[in-house]
Amino acid sequence: MDVLGRYRNLIVLVGVLFAQVLGLAVQVKRTTDSEPTRLIRVWAVDVVTPLERALHWVQTSTGNVWHNYFYLRGVRAENRNLKQQIERMSLEQVRMSQDADQARRLQALLAFKEQFISRTMAAQVIGSSGSELSRSVYIDKGESDGIKPDMAVITADGIVGKVLRVYRSTSQVLLIDDQTSGVGAILDKTRLQGILRGTPAGEVVLEKVMSDEAVPAGELVLTSGGDGIFPKGLLVGRVTKVAPGSELFLNIRVRPAADLSKLEEVLVVTKIDERQAQPDQTGAARAVDILAERLPTVPSKPENAVKADTSGASAPGTVAPKSASSDAKPKTVSPEASAVGGVPGARKAASSASSSSGAASGNSSGTSTVTSVGTSSRNGVAATETPATKVSAKPVKATAEPKPQPAVEDSPH
Amino acid sequence: MAITYTSGEQVEVYRFSIPATILIPLTAVFLQAWLPLRFPFFTIFDLPLLVTIGFATARRSPLAGLLTGGVIGILQDALTHHPIGLYGISKTVVGFGASSLGIKLDVEHAGARFLLTIVFYAVHEVVYFMISRGLVGLRMAWTWPHELLSGVANALLGVLVFMLLDRVKQRT
């Protein structure tokens, strides 16, 4: 009895440690996806997240008042720049929608099934795990909002992670730079597939790419769709460093496109549809048209013949109507000239194209609920490589990378 | 240097009011979860650890120290996606160690607190590292420069946190 009293502290210490180790062992053994969330987590989240939510609300409200009513320096210039950017992008959209149409026709011919993000939900990031070794964040949407585990979480810049745990009004999102995360990824140009993982240091690496493959730095990394969580074709990031790794694989370091350390708003992909691509019924959808586009350009005609042709054609900068004969001619859309001059024909073409194109119209209308994220993003990359679409520094960032264009649901934030 | 070996009778023993006992650890866990969103560098700090050390050294009761550390650690664990107990075990050990040491050493001086925090930060990291790798099987990377930097940063912040705790502690 005296011994117990003398070593009481030590005995309690050993007892507490033993209980926790036992608890750990049970959790490690039972770790499965179907495991219910432990009550202690629910309590902790219920205690901490309301405070985070309140503080976030105060911060956002204060920021909004300041930025919307007081700090308006440079807004006029920014507005002007944005208008110019819209004009440039409208023209870009025309060409991209044509590419998308073409891709859809080809996909239809091949009975190709496309994945669509058909519904997303905007959510605010309100908290983090607070640990360097657990890279996860909390969002202000939970079970009551229809969030479920394993839903993909993205931003306009790229993928962010997946929903790990769902609570009543909040959810925990596992970021892609966490060491326990894994995303099926594919390199944009080389089409090599691998698994994207986080490292203990918080870096993102692409694993399982054989060392005899050549992977250039700067190549885009997209989701492959193989993980069953992220639809195919979403932007993941860009290769920053390639080095020989252990065993037979390359050590490919990837910089995520989304800034994972400064997340504020994210989109939870609540519904993904998979359906066969439908060609655009409004345009000519014959295989011969597609082949005609692939054929070598018709040699230029004598000058007088050209004059005769152009007399009945539209103004420079406009898009000629789709037909087999017109497709054979080089379709010149001069964005810079048109953007400055503001050729009405171009805008008309842009608006008509945007109304007929699924992927392109998603952003322009702002209310569409269907967004293609399959091969259309690839087309976006290929399309921006042409010199005719040279734009200023800021828009280049916007168009050079194939950004996912999820449609935002009409739900309140 | 103010680290002096003292007898049990010489050291002061403090206590904290019930609201302070509940609210301070909760605030520490909350700030630890919230601040990294605004200041990503804040993840190198471990505010709950500093509160654990602060409480333990002030109370100088190993039992109270280990229980406080255990509860704070488990609360912190609950916000991560790792199994519950990793921080719990680490902070239980730190709470016990800090309070046991607090009985023998006078840790009222800022320099002493600085060194004490570095030592217990290292203990915390070593225990966490061992459990994560050995029991849970997490891939962990031990990088000396990072650990040293974090240790110093936490010790500096710890001095400030202990000064704040001094204001709310009560002499028994």
CATH topology of chain B: Arp2/3 complex 21 kDa subunit ARPC3
Spatial strand arrangement across the major sheet of chain A: 1-2-5-4-3-12
**What is the residue-mean pLDDT of chain A, rounded to a whole number?**
71
**Major sheet of chain B, described briefly?**
2 strands, antiparallel
- Fraction of residues in β-strands of chain A: 15-25%
Regions of chain A with pLDDT < 50 over 5+ consecutive residues? 305-413
Instruction: Indicate how many domains the architecture of chain B comprises.
Output: 1
Portion in beta strands of chain B: under 5%
Report the major sheet of chain A: 6 strands, antiparallel, barrel
Q: What is the H/E order of chain B?
A: EHHHHHHE
Helix content of chain B: over 70%
Explain what this protein looks like in three dimensions.
The complex is a heterodimer of chains A (413) and B (172). Chain A has 413 residues and is an alpha+beta fold. Chain A is 39% helix and 21% strand. Chain A has twelve helices and 13 strands. Chain A has a six-stranded antiparallel β-barrel. The longest helix of chain A has 35 residues, at 75-109. Chain A is globular and about 90 Å long. The model of chain A is unreliable at 305-413 (pLDDT under 50). Chain B has a single domain (14-171), classed as Arp2/3 complex 21 kDa subunit ARPC3 (Orthogonal Bundle), CATH 1.10.1760. In chain B, helix 2 runs antiparallel to helix 3, helix 3 (62-79) runs antiparallel to helix 4 and helix 5 (110-136) crosses helix 6 (144-168). The two termini of chain B are 26 Å apart. Chain B has 172 residues and is mostly helical. Chain B has a two-stranded antiparallel ribbon. Chain B has helices spanning 18-38, 47-59, 62-79, 86-104, 110-136, 144-168; strands at residues 14-16, 169-171. The model of chain B is unreliable at 1-8 (pLDDT under 50). The longest helix of chain B has 27 residues, at 110-136. Classes of the chains: A alpha+beta (413), B mainly alpha (172). At the A-B interface, helix 2, helix 3, strand 1 and strand 2 of A face helix 1, helix 3, helix 4 and helix 5 of B.
